[in-house]
Amino acid sequence: MVKIVTKDHKGLHERAKTVPKELFGTPELKKIIADMSLALSKEDDGVALAAPQIAVPLRIFIVAGKILTPEDEEKIYPDLVFINPIITKLSRTKEEMDEGCLSVRWYFGQVKRSSKATVEAYDINGKKFSRSGSGVIAQIFQHETDHLDGVLFIEKAKNLREYTPEGKQKEKA
To answer: Is 144 marked active-site?
Structure first.
Protein backbone atom coordinates (compact mmCIF):
# COMPACT_ATOMS: atom_id res chain seq x y z
CA MET A 1 0.00 0.00 0.00
CA VAL A 2 1.33 3.42 -1.00
CA LYS A 3 1.43 6.05 1.72
CA ILE A 4 1.95 9.77 1.60
CA VAL A 5 5.10 10.63 3.52
CA THR A 6 5.15 13.44 6.06
CA LYS A 7 7.26 16.56 6.48
CA ASP A 8 10.06 14.78 8.35
CA HIS A 9 10.79 12.42 5.43
CA LYS A 10 14.25 13.19 4.03
CA GLY A 11 13.10 12.93 0.40
CA LEU A 12 10.72 15.87 0.79
CA HIS A 13 13.70 18.15 1.40
CA GLU A 14 15.78 17.11 -1.62
CA ARG A 15 15.56 18.09 -5.29
CA ALA A 16 13.84 15.32 -7.27
CA LYS A 17 15.65 13.73 -10.22
CA THR A 18 14.69 14.24 -13.85
CA VAL A 19 12.73 11.33 -15.32
CA PRO A 20 15.04 9.73 -17.92
CA LYS A 21 13.78 9.32 -21.49
CA GLU A 22 14.09 5.53 -21.23
CA LEU A 23 11.40 5.47 -18.53
CA PHE A 24 8.67 7.10 -20.66
CA GLY A 25 5.91 4.69 -21.67
CA THR A 26 7.20 1.88 -19.44
CA PRO A 27 5.18 -0.21 -17.00
CA GLU A 28 7.45 1.16 -14.23
CA LEU A 29 6.43 4.76 -14.94
CA LYS A 30 2.78 3.77 -15.32
CA LYS A 31 2.92 2.08 -11.89
CA ILE A 32 4.43 5.17 -10.24
CA ILE A 33 1.66 7.34 -11.67
CA ALA A 34 -1.03 4.80 -10.73
CA ASP A 35 0.37 4.72 -7.18
CA MET A 36 0.27 8.52 -7.05
CA SER A 37 -3.33 8.61 -8.31
CA LEU A 38 -4.37 5.97 -5.78
CA ALA A 39 -2.73 7.82 -2.88
CA LEU A 40 -4.33 11.10 -3.98
CA SER A 41 -7.77 9.54 -4.46
CA LYS A 42 -7.78 8.43 -0.80
CA GLU A 43 -7.58 12.05 0.36
CA ASP A 44 -10.97 13.75 -0.02
CA ASP A 45 -9.42 17.22 0.22
CA GLY A 46 -6.37 16.46 -1.95
CA VAL A 47 -6.05 18.29 -5.26
CA ALA A 48 -2.51 17.35 -6.37
CA LEU A 49 0.46 15.20 -5.43
CA ALA A 50 4.17 15.16 -6.26
CA ALA A 51 6.13 11.90 -6.58
CA PRO A 52 8.41 12.74 -3.61
CA GLN A 53 5.27 12.68 -1.46
CA ILE A 54 5.11 8.91 -1.99
CA ALA A 55 8.89 8.60 -1.53
CA VAL A 56 9.66 8.47 -5.27
CA PRO A 57 12.43 11.02 -5.96
CA LEU A 58 11.37 11.84 -9.53
CA ARG A 59 10.13 15.09 -11.11
CA ILE A 60 6.47 14.12 -11.52
CA PHE A 61 3.30 15.66 -10.19
CA ILE A 62 -0.38 15.01 -10.84
CA VAL A 63 -3.41 17.25 -10.58
CA ALA A 64 -6.66 15.57 -9.54
CA GLY A 65 -9.21 15.31 -12.30
CA LYS A 66 -11.91 16.44 -9.88
CA ILE A 67 -10.31 19.91 -9.65
CA LEU A 68 -10.21 20.17 -13.46
CA THR A 69 -13.80 18.98 -14.04
CA PRO A 70 -16.37 21.75 -14.60
CA GLU A 71 -19.20 21.69 -12.06
CA ASP A 72 -21.81 20.92 -14.71
CA GLU A 73 -19.98 17.77 -15.90
CA GLU A 74 -21.11 14.41 -14.59
CA LYS A 75 -18.03 12.37 -15.49
CA ILE A 76 -14.85 13.39 -13.66
CA TYR A 77 -11.81 14.12 -15.81
CA PRO A 78 -8.75 11.87 -15.38
CA ASP A 79 -5.82 13.10 -13.32
CA LEU A 80 -3.44 15.28 -15.31
CA VAL A 81 0.18 14.09 -15.27
CA PHE A 82 3.18 16.46 -15.45
CA ILE A 83 6.60 14.82 -15.96
CA ASN A 84 9.77 16.92 -15.75
CA PRO A 85 7.69 20.10 -15.41
CA ILE A 86 9.18 23.55 -15.77
CA ILE A 87 7.31 26.72 -14.95
CA THR A 88 7.85 28.86 -18.04
CA LYS A 89 5.75 31.86 -17.14
CA LEU A 90 4.47 33.48 -13.95
CA SER A 91 2.31 36.58 -13.76
CA ARG A 92 3.72 39.59 -11.99
CA THR A 93 0.45 39.81 -10.09
CA LYS A 94 0.73 37.88 -6.83
CA GLU A 95 -1.86 36.95 -4.27
CA GLU A 96 -1.68 35.71 -0.69
CA MET A 97 -3.37 32.32 -0.90
CA ASP A 98 -4.40 29.94 1.84
CA GLU A 99 -2.50 26.71 1.38
CA GLY A 100 -2.18 23.27 2.92
CA CYS A 101 -0.35 20.06 2.05
CA LEU A 102 -1.01 16.33 2.30
CA SER A 103 2.53 15.87 3.68
CA VAL A 104 2.01 18.52 6.36
CA ARG A 105 -1.47 17.49 7.44
CA TRP A 106 -3.81 19.86 9.17
CA TYR A 107 -1.55 22.92 8.84
CA PHE A 108 -2.59 25.87 6.72
CA GLY A 109 -0.95 29.22 6.05
CA GLN A 110 -0.82 32.13 3.66
CA VAL A 111 1.65 31.82 0.75
CA LYS A 112 2.28 34.57 -1.80
CA ARG A 113 1.93 33.03 -5.26
CA SER A 114 1.65 34.35 -8.80
CA SER A 115 -2.01 34.44 -9.83
CA LYS A 116 -1.25 32.89 -13.26
CA ALA A 117 1.30 30.24 -14.26
CA THR A 118 2.31 28.26 -17.33
CA VAL A 119 4.02 24.88 -17.12
CA GLU A 120 5.77 22.88 -19.83
CA ALA A 121 6.00 19.15 -19.15
CA TYR A 122 5.84 15.71 -20.72
CA ASP A 123 3.01 13.20 -20.62
CA ILE A 124 3.48 9.53 -19.74
CA ASN A 125 4.57 8.71 -23.31
CA GLY A 126 7.11 11.53 -23.53
CA LYS A 127 5.02 13.99 -25.54
CA LYS A 128 5.74 17.60 -24.59
CA PHE A 129 2.80 19.89 -23.74
CA SER A 130 2.12 23.24 -22.13
CA ARG A 131 -0.66 24.10 -19.71
CA SER A 132 -1.62 27.47 -18.25
CA GLY A 133 -3.84 28.18 -15.30
CA SER A 134 -4.97 30.89 -12.97
CA GLY A 135 -6.13 30.99 -9.37
CA VAL A 136 -6.03 27.59 -7.68
CA ILE A 137 -4.51 25.88 -10.75
CA ALA A 138 -1.60 28.36 -10.80
CA GLN A 139 -1.21 27.82 -7.06
CA ILE A 140 -1.08 24.04 -7.56
CA PHE A 141 1.57 24.34 -10.29
CA GLN A 142 3.77 26.43 -8.00
CA HIS A 143 3.18 24.30 -4.87
CA GLU A 144 3.93 21.01 -6.65
CA THR A 145 7.00 22.42 -8.40
CA ASP A 146 8.25 23.52 -4.97
CA HIS A 147 7.87 19.88 -3.84
CA LEU A 148 10.05 18.76 -6.75
CA ASP A 149 12.67 21.29 -5.62
CA GLY A 150 12.59 20.03 -2.01
CA VAL A 151 10.62 22.98 -0.61
CA LEU A 152 7.56 22.59 1.64
CA PHE A 153 4.91 25.31 1.79
CA ILE A 154 5.48 25.78 5.54
CA GLU A 155 8.91 27.20 4.68
CA LYS A 156 7.17 30.06 2.83
CA ALA A 157 3.90 30.42 4.74
CA LYS A 158 2.81 33.21 7.03
CA ASN A 159 0.13 32.89 9.70
CA LEU A 160 0.57 29.11 9.98
CA ARG A 161 -2.40 27.52 11.74
CA GLU A 162 -3.01 23.96 12.88
CA TYR A 163 -6.40 22.29 12.71
CA THR A 164 -7.84 19.03 13.99
CA PRO A 165 -8.96 16.44 11.40
CA GLU A 166 -12.52 17.57 12.25
CA GLY A 167 -11.72 21.08 11.03
CA LYS A 168 -11.41 22.91 14.34
CA GLN A 169 -8.48 25.26 14.78
CA LYS A 170 -6.13 24.16 17.54
CA GLU A 171 -5.35 26.68 20.24
CA LYS A 172 -1.74 27.80 20.51
CA ALA A 173 -0.08 26.46 23.65
So the answer is: yes
